[in-house]
# Entry
Amino acid sequence: MKRKANILLYIETGGPGGAETVLINIARSIDRERFNPVVVLHRSGWVHEQLLKLNIDTRIIPCNRSWDLSFLVKFIRLGRQLKIDLINSHLFGAGLYACLAAIFLRVPVIATFHNELFLPGRAERYLKLKNFLIRHLARRVVLVADYMRKDYVQLGRYPEDKLLTIYNGLELDRADGENDRHRIRAELGLAEDDPVVGHVANFRPPKGHRYLIEAAAIVCEAMPEARFLLIGEQGDGRIKSEVEELIAEKKLAANVRLLGFRADVSALLTATDVFVLSSISEGHPLSVVEAMAAGRPVVATDVGGLSEIVTPGETGFLVEPKNSSAMADRIAELLRDRELRRDMGEAGRRIARDRFSLSTMMRQYQNLFEEAIGKRL
# Structure
């Protein structure tokens, strides 16, 4: 009988987000009859707290610079100590260290990328070097959406046969439907008949919060009773401050609520009528999948992998990025048409369960892990 494979899961960030949630889901859902997972982080924080609650073996190895040789040495030492059979890295920095460590550990690396090769507004240091090393040293590269493939092949020069798309998946049966809806609305002081729009995104430049507030102003001019709930970690506060200034300028204090980071997003979504995502850049946002699973129609910008999640006219609408007016028109259309919301919400719920479930994602990752490990066991 084969022994269990020791899988090292590694991410360079520690706060709440999509990539971090995927790593946590892999660690907690992996088949313990086949795999023994260990997670490596750079620091304590939200991810560490979630893993501790789940009793998942987690090791913190500090890494304080863009290039930290002492981290790499400790990482290799841990891999040898644990007799690691495979490393699954998430994000570029983690992919670089994982591939370098794999040279010494003689194990395969599965590098998962959650974003475009070049993110708008961000110049990643040593990106060409990272790409070169990961391109040559990783066994396979997982992309979270098909649209990413073109850039990784043409700009990153990754071989087509090294790339594989695995959509991010979620556990989709957590919310308690109408009970959650009534409870959350009461908690937030919302009336049962208030039109409520939800938005889930950390306060970062690619998320386009400015355009959401501009759209909210247009909607609320025609529908003063409309309410917008903005959920997400507020980071260093710079973007949050800009959003608050715009809310004041547009006189939306009574209409827009900034709820900050919430652990009960699935329950909050049941209190909404429409879900909106205003991003100018995206990978495969889990928030949209969660909204669809909650039966909410989606209005999102047509960027990144969103066209692979939202079916226009069936589960929601896609609009041009930075086009606040178009976004407002679609939001208002849905808020005014209860039957359309219901039909789109039900269609979205079916697609979320069929294509974007946690079980589907885990089956693909586990098959990939076994394939990569091959004859080592």
